[in-house]
Design goal:
Length: 384
C-alpha cells in the first residue's frame, strides 16, 4: 500500500525538538534535520510488538540486524564488510566526537569541510584539537571540496580528515573521481578519514550512486571510519541507532576503548526499529524519495524566483542550502523567522549569509512557508 506523505501529523506538544522550538507561535519549523513523515508501517508494527512484550532491559545488536546491514551494503553499494568491523552507537554525532578523541592526540589537528554540519566543528573544539577549514567551493553548480586550497593551510600536524558524503548542507553526492582525490590527499598527508555518510540513502537524482569512501580500496578501508544510520532514511532519529564501520583492527580498538564508560549502548527499541527498517522499509523509502524529489523541485523553483535568493541543484538529502547574501538584511535567519519560517542559521555551518531549509515535510506546509518567504522579501528594498 502506498504511503501518504501528504498526511499532516501534529507534532506540537509531542516532545519534538523541532516543533517545540516554535510551539506557541505561528512559525513553521523547517530547521533541524528530522522529517515530519510517519516512519514506515513495518517499523511502527515492530515497535508495537516489542513494547507489548513489556520488558525493556539491556540489549545488543541481533544477528538479524548485523546480517541485513551487511547484505544492504553489498546490494546497494557493492561494499563487502565484515561483522567484526561494526560498532553500534546511540547516534552519529557521538561517533564524530569519538573519532576525534580516540584517533588523534592533543598535538594533532583535524581537517573539516567548511561550511559543514556544525558537529564537525564542535567535535574538534570539544576535544581541544586544532581544526583547519577545507573550503567547499561552488563548481558547475555543485558544492565540492577544494583540496588545493586546503593543501596551502597544512602545518604537518594534521591527523584526521572529516568528510561528509552526501554533503550537509550543500547536498552534493561526490563522484568516484572526487572521492579518489580525497583518498589521494589522505594518503599524501597520512590522514585517518572519518566519513559521515548518514544521508547516503537519500539520493534525489536518480542517475547518481553513493560510493562509500572505504569501498574505494583496501588502503581507504584501513585508514577510515564510516558512520552510517537508518535515522534520516526512515525518520527514526529520535530512537538513536547508528553504526561505525571500522575495518582497521587497531583503529577499532582505540575507538571502542574511548567510548567505554562514556557512550552508552544502543536502546533496545532502536535496535528493533533499525532491524525492521532495513528488512522491510525499501518500498516506503522508494515512495519517500519520489515525494522528496517533488519537494526539492518545488523549493528550487520557488526560491530561485525570489529576488536576492539563490539555490543550487540539490543532489541528495532533504536540505536546501540557500544563499541569502543578495538580500538587504543583516541576519537572514532572523528575518525569515520574523516572517514565520524557522530555518537553520547559516552561521551554524560557518556562513551567516546562508540559511538551511528542511523540506522533509508535507508539501502544503512547504508551500505555505515558501509563500511567507517570498512575501517577506517583497517588502525589502532592492539592492543596488
Amino acid at each position: 500500500m502506498a504511503s501518504n506523505f501528504d498526511l499532516y501529523v501534529e507534532r506540537r506538544h509531542t516532545d519534538s525538538d523541532k516543533w517545540h522550538k516554535y510551539e506557541d507561535t505561528e512559525i513553521i519549523p523547517l530547521w533541524v534535520a528530522d522529517s515530519d513523515f510517519k516512519s514506515p508501517p513495518v517499523v511502527i508494527e515492530a515497535l508495537q510488538k516489542r513494547v507489548a512484550h513489556g520488558v525493556f532491559g539491556y540489549g545488543y545488536p541481533s544477528p538479524a540486524l548485523i546480517d541485513v546491514f551487511i547484505q544492504r551494503m553489498k546490494q546497494r553499494y557493492q561494499w563487502d564488510i565484515k561483522s567484526e568491523w561494526l560498532v553500534f552507537l546511540p547516534g552519529l554525532v557521538c561517533g564524530l566526537n569519538l573519532c576525534v578523541r580516540a584517533l588523534t592526540t592533543p598535538e594533532q589537528g583535524t581537517i573539516a569541510p567548511h561550511p559543514i554540519y556544525s558537529p564537525f566543528m564542535k567535535a574538534a573544539r570539544f576535544a581541544n584539537r586544532n581544526q583547519i577549514s577545507a573550503p567547499v567551493k561552488l563548481q558547475n553548480k555543485r558544492w565540492v571540496l577544494d583540496l588545493e586550497a586546503t593543501e596551502n593551510q597544512l602545518s604537518g600536524s594534521e591527523k584526521m580528515l572529516l568528510l561528509c558524503n552526501p554533503q550537509n548542507p550543500g547536498g552534493t553526492v561526490y563522484r568516484r573521481h572526487e572521492l579518489v582525490a580525497q583518498l589521494d590527499f589522505a594518503q599524501r598527508h597520512n590522514l585517518i578519514v572519518c566519513s559521515d555518510e548518514i544521508h547516503c540513502d537519500l539520493l534525489l537524482d536518480e542517475g547518481l550512486k553513493h560510493i562509500p569512501f572505504a569501498s574505494l580500496s583496501e588502503d581507504a578501508a584501513q585508514r577510515s571510519v564510516t558512520l552510517m544510520s537508518p535515522s534520516k532514511t526512515f525518520n527514526i532519529a529520535g530512537l538513536g541507532a547508528s553504526i561505525a564501520v571500522i575495518p582497521n583492527t587497531a583503529l577499532r580498538h582505540r575507538f571502542i576503548e574511548a567510548r567505554s564508560g562514556i557512550v552508552p549502548s544502543v536502546d533496545i527499541l532502536a535496535y528493533v526499529a533499525a532491524t525492521a527498517a532495513y528488512q522491510g522499509g525499501e518500498e516506503w523509502l522508494s515512495e519517500q524519495l519520489v515525494y522528496l524529489r517533488g519537494n526539492r523541485d518545488l523549493v528550487l523553483e520557488r526560491i530561485n524566483a525570489i529576488p536576492g535568493l539563490k539555490l543550487m541543484p540539490i543532489e541528495a538529502t532533504y536540505l536546501a542550502w540557500i544563499d541569502a547574501s543578495g538580500l538587504a538584511v543583516t541576519n537572514p535567519h532572523a528575518f525569515f523567522e520574523q516572517a514565520g519560517v524557522g530555518l537553520s542559521p547559516g552561521s551554524d555551518f560557518g556562513n551567516p549569509n546562508f540559511v538551511r531549509l528542511n523540506f522533509g515535510c508535507q508539501r502544503a506546509l512547504l508551500e505555505q512557508a515558501l509563500t511567507r518567504m517570498a512575501n517577506a522579501v517583497a517588502t525589502l528594498p532592492a539592492l543596488a
